[in-house]
Amino acid sequence: MSTSVRRTELPLTMRTPAPEARKRRRTSSPGRAPATKAFLILPSVVILILTNAYPIAYAAFQALHNGSLITPGDFVGLDNFAKVLADPAFWRAAGFTVIFAIAGVFGSWIIGLAIALLLRTRIPAKGILKTVLLLPWVVPIVVSAMSWNWLIGTSSSPVPSLMHALGFGDAIFLSDPLGAQITVCLFEVWVNFPFMMLMMSAALTSVDESIYEAAKIDGASASQSFRYMTLPIIAKPTYIAWVLMTIFCVNDFPTVYLLTHGGPVGATNTLVVLAYKTVFQNFQTGPGVAIAFLMTLALAAVAVLLFRQIRKSTSS
C-alpha cells in the first residue's frame, strides 16, 4: 500500500512523455518549417518564372536589338526607345490611350455606381434587370463589336439610316476620326460598366442604412449623404476598381482593333494597337517591344499613385 502511494506522489516533471507528444515535437521543430514552406511554394515560383519572368526578360532582350520575329538581330542598346520617342505616331497613340483610359474608367464607374445605387432601392423585377445589365460584359467582345459594326459601321447601317430619316443628316461614326474616337470610347464604357456595377454593388453592401436615416433626421439632403457618407465609405473599393479598370483599358486590344483597326488614319491607335502593328505588320520587333515597355512603365506609375490613395483612404 505504501509503495503505491509513493508512485502516485511522483512529481509531474519526472513522468516520461508519451510517444505521440515526442513525435509532435519532432515534426513541429522550427528548423523544418522554412524548408517545408519553400518546398510548398516552389511549384508556384517555377510557374511564375516560366510564364512571367522569362517572357519579360526575352522581351527586354528584343527591345535592345534590331531583330525581327525570326532573327534576334544586332545589339543596338536604347536606340529603339529613342526611335519610338521621336516618332509622332507614338505620341498620338499615347494621347488617345490616355483619353481612352479616362473615358473607360470614369465613364464605366459613373454608370456602374449609378446603377448600383438604383439596385439598392425597391424596384420591380430586380433580378431580371441585373441579368440584362450584365449582358455587355458576359457577351464575347467579338459578338459585341460585330453588333456595333452592323448598327453604325456604314452610312446604310440602321442607326445612320434612322438619323438621316429623322432629318439629322448623314451620321458619320467610324469613318470620321473624331466620330471613331467617340464611338470607341463609348463602346469601352458599354463593355465595362457591368464590372463597375458589380464592384460598386459589393462596396455598397458595407454601407449601413441606419446612418442615412440618422442623417435624414438631422436634415441632410440626398446629395449631402452621398458626398459625405457614401463616397468616403466606398473610397477604397473605388480606387481598387480604378486600378483594375485602368489596366483593362490600357491593355484593351480587341475593342479598338475589332471596331476600327486603329483607323481612320491612325486616329484610334492606342499604344497596344500601335505595338501590335509595329511588330506584326511592319515586322519591327525592337521598336514594338519598346512601345510595350514604355506603356508598362506608365501603367505602373499610375497604379502606384492609385495605391497610395488607397493607403491614405485606409489610414484616414
From TrEMBL:
Xref: CDD domains: TM_PBP2 (cd06261)
Keywords: Cell membrane, Membrane, Transmembrane, Transmembrane helix, Transport
Region named Disordered: 1-32
GO cellular component terms given for this protein: plasma membrane
Domain ABC transmembrane type-1 stretches: 94-306
Protein name: Sugar ABC transporter permease
InterPro entries registered for this protein in UniProt: MetI-like, MetI-like_sf
